[in-house]
Amino acid sequence: MIDLENNRYQIFDDVVSKDTQDYIEENLLDSNKFPWFYNEYSVNEVEDDFGLPFYDYMQFAHSFVIQEELNSGFKVPILDRLLNELNIKNTIIRAKANFKPICPYGDLEKHNKAHRDQHEDHIVGLYYVNESDGDTWLFNDDKTVMTRVKHKKGRIVFFDGQILHAASHPYYAKKRISINIDFKKWVTHI
Fold first, then answer.
1. In the chain, at which end, N or C, are there fewer CB atoms within 10 A of the end residue's CB?
2. Is the dihedral of CA 108, 112, 118, 121 positive or negative?
3. What order do you get walking across the sheet with 136-139 strand by strand?
4. Rg of the chain's alpha carbons, rounded to an integer?
């Protein structure tokens, strides 16, 4: 059960069936069908860096939902399948898949630019599509590291969207793929 009233973040492993995990990974890696779009940086370069040192590198993204509006025909076969298994019905503000390639100057002890996905209150759900390195970093209000979440296929982490966070590119794996979902903030437990 997701309970962010009593937890700043929660991590769940394998709450999505193996069939769905494999289906999502296979479809996101189907170069003949699934379109990825190039981004020079993983976080908009005009975003505040919050005084935290970072490195950044290119990534590819695919937006399923932008500002609560459907943006992709892949929402139903991929995103809705994931959310149905998780039994989440909350309004989606934004949902996108991120493909981070191995970074030639990455470092296991460094992260991309720290950021918040939205200005409004929201909940972030990060679903890890494949096995890879490249942690997700969550920061305390004083900008110290709260935790580092290991990227593991089938893992999902939920946290309050006001928590400053950062991804990192893989250092050993060729690719790190995740689905980032920003939900309208909910009050009750799911």
1. N
2. positive
3. 145-149, 136-139, 165-166
4. 15
Quick: pLDDT tens for 115-128: 999 999 999 999 99
Please state, in angstroms and rounded to a whole number, the distance separating the CA atoms of residues 41 and 113.
Answer: 9
Among candidates 173, 170, 163, which has minimal Cα distance to 125? 163
Q: What pTM, to 2 d.p., does this model score?
A: 0.94
Backbone angles phi, psi at 95, to 5 degrees: -145, 135
Q: How far apart are CA 112 and CA 127, in angstroms?
A: 18
pLDDT digits (tens, 9 = 90+) for 84-127: 999 998 999 999 999 999 998 878 899 999 999 999 999 999 99
| Rounded-to-integer distance, Cα 134 and Cα 57, Å | 13
Hey, what are 134's tokens? Answer: 């490249």
